[in-house]
Design brief:
272 residues, 22% strand, alpha+beta
Length: 272
Amino acid sequence: MNNYRYHDLVQRFALALYILGGKYTYDFVRLNLICALPCPTTITSLIKQSNFKLNESEFRFNFLQEHFISKNIKYSFVSEDSTAVVKKIVYDTATNSFVGFCTPLNNGIPIPHYFRTESFDQLKEWFDSIQKAGFLNLHMIQPISESIANSSPFILSAYGTDNKFTLYDIVRKWVYIFNECSSRHIRIVGYATGMHQFQFQPIPIPILELELVGIGRIGIGIGWNWLELELELVGIGWNWNWNWSELVKNWSELVGIGQELVGIDMELIQNN
């Protein structure tokens, strides 16, 4: 083990390379640039010291508040999406819990450290009965600022899921994020989420008591007969994002949204 000391800029570059490129990329660059970059152990220590480590299902509202105060930002946009991951179970020593199972939801909110046990029989039961997470769900906060230097997105939360949830879960989760941010003087101006076809189907849910404050009420559009929601939203903009690349790959495919059909053969697409 050497005793090299590295400038703060070198450490920040090494940290960015390790996070963006991954462990194998970092090791490859370090082998070809001998002693130019810190060892992986140092990088791990830097990550722990800088609060970059995420605990599954934990929402980092306090860190978000500190970040916005330091940048003097008040407004932000929230996005949510999931990506496929390799199914595996690992033990997290920091939280004394197992990570990799499908995280259960409580009113749409993931329960942190749910799979924590001292019993081998309990762990065996989880392996036998609980599905492993095939997707990683990620919540991002995009600060709205005139300065490019202050516009870097912030990771709010991440957790494993099987990508099976209802519209009720989504709305409850968005309301939770809105209220927590509002209590910290952070204004959410909109939400966006990537959804699969089955999530576009009408899902009747009961009226939700949305305890939101700040601006006037916005009712669901009268012509939105495909969205069966009996509720009013306060300051929440609905933005259903669809992956149009899937339609471009297959020109004959039609996507069902409620009782309507959407295809690639649209005037908007053909307009030059």
